[in-house]
Amino acid sequence: MTREERENKGRRIKEKGEATRLRHASMHPVVVELKLDLKCLNNAERNKLFLYFTECRWLCNHLLGLSNDMFRDFETRTRCITSLDKDGNEVERNLTMPAKFIQTVYSSLKQDMKALAAKRNKTGKRNGKLRFRSSYDSIELNQYGNTHWICYGPDGNKNGKYKNTIHIAGIKRPIRVFGMEQIPAGAEYANAKLVKKPSGIYLMLTCYIQKHEDSTESETKPDLGIDFGIKTAITTSDGEKYDISVRESERLKGLQRKLARQKKGSRGWYSTKLLIRREYEKLANRRRAKANQVYHDIVTGRKLVVMQDENIKGWHKGLFGKQVQNSALGTLRRKLMSDPNVLVIDRFFPSTRMCPVCGHIHENITLSDRTFACPACGYTEDRDVKSAKTLLLAGKHEIACTLPEQKRTPADVRL
Questions:
Q1: Residue 366 contacts residue 347 (beta carbons within 8 Å)
Q2: Please, are residues 59 and 102 in contact by the beta-carbon 8 Å criterion?
């Protein structure tokens, strides 16, 4: 290929990328989780798929061990690298994964280094460096049609021979997947991630769909204040209480006792560790599902939700660490704080001790006092419900004092 042909090819790729980004700017991205059915592959193909993650770890650690000049001049066509075995000895490794995977590992490391340098320049402090990785559980597939694509039948639809199957670079046989029905009709496929979990290998496929403006007005619900707690995880100003705790199963406790009796490093020890990781994955999925359900019930149809910036991390380190660990408070707090209709009150605001009627601050209140009784006006209310009502009043007062009459939305408040 001559120099002029290379320049023309690069120009065409650049123009096509700009057109794609411009088209995606007016669309809505959706990420669909597809689980790979590895039973449809033979042993060689299955081992090759798992070997991709191992080779990505070898390459990542090899790049981290290079000097700055050698890292900058690294050639992505390289197939022979040096890695360390479990005893710390250098071993020559030959990479068999596709060249696109090598490029994605190299580009992701460059992005991480740029992010660290930007943070270092912003704060002016040393923030360490990237560490060697003991596992590599996510592979970026950045080019649909080259690194991955959905297989259709001979007639051009999903009802042919290759129904519900995908193709991944380097694996000749189409792989059957579960969850294809989640893909919206008329979606445009984009990049994806190949993720390894204890329960199997998943493909996180990004799809773009057209934005549809909802002409019908949704039901408007009243403003809400929410209070985080230990005994009752979430309490609203309407008096509703949510329990979002998922405790450890008896199977998990039994597997942990079994692991303690086994010899470390044996085959049975590794098998039991894998089963424990699967149980923890199930617990995390259940907690995430509860957090998403409560978040949907709280936020949907409301223009204002007021919460307090609670120190969940401090609760976890205290006497109630077990209760906080079994709940999804951290996940729910992160989702609420990222919502534009949620107003966050400072964590030092005395929502527990303040009376929402007269404003009196009760000094002598302990954790055992589950009912709030104001000594000044005689107001009596459940402790958690009273705190939620106090937060709602404080949020409305902050908006009224900060913004003009026409813009009373928490999204415009600078917290």
A1: no
A2: yes
Distance of CA 30 to the CA centre of its chain: 14
Q: How far apart are CA 395 and CA 299, in angstroms?
A: 16
The answer to whether position 14 is within a domain reads no
Number of domains in the chain: 2
CB 105 within 8 A of CB 55: no
Examine the domain organization and report whether 353 and 406 are in the same domain: yes
Residues 221-258 have pLDDT tens digits of 888 989 888 878 888 888 888 888 888 899 999 999 99
CA 347/CA 243 separation, integer angstroms: 22
Position 332 pLDDT exceeds 50: yes
Contact predicate 55/102, CB 8 Å:
no
Asked whether residue 76 falls in the same domain as residue 154, the answer is yes
Between 270 and 159, the higher pLDDT residue: 270
Q: What is the pLDDT of residues 112-137, one digit of tens each?
A: 989 888 888 887 777 778 888 889 99
Residue with tokens 């996180």: 204
Residue whose tokens read 């599902």? 289
Domain span including residue 162: 20-121+128-210
- Three-state DSSP at 350 gives coil
354 is written with which tokens? 């303040």
Q: What is the pLDDT of residue 32?
A: 93
pLDDT at 262: 95
- In this structure, are residues 383 and 230 in contact, taking their beta carbons and an 8 Å threshold? no
Q: Is the residue at 364 inside a domain?
A: yes
Query: Structure pTM?
Result: 0.79
Helix (H) or strand (E) holding 335: helix 329-337
155 and 239 in a single domain? The answer is no
Regarding predicted confidence, which is higher, 110 or 366? Answer: 110
Domain-located, residue 112: yes
Quick check: is 173 in a domain? yes
- Specify which residues 415 forms β-bridges with: none
Verify that 340 and 193 share a domain, yes or no.
Answer: no
Whether 169 and 229 map to the same domain: the answer is no
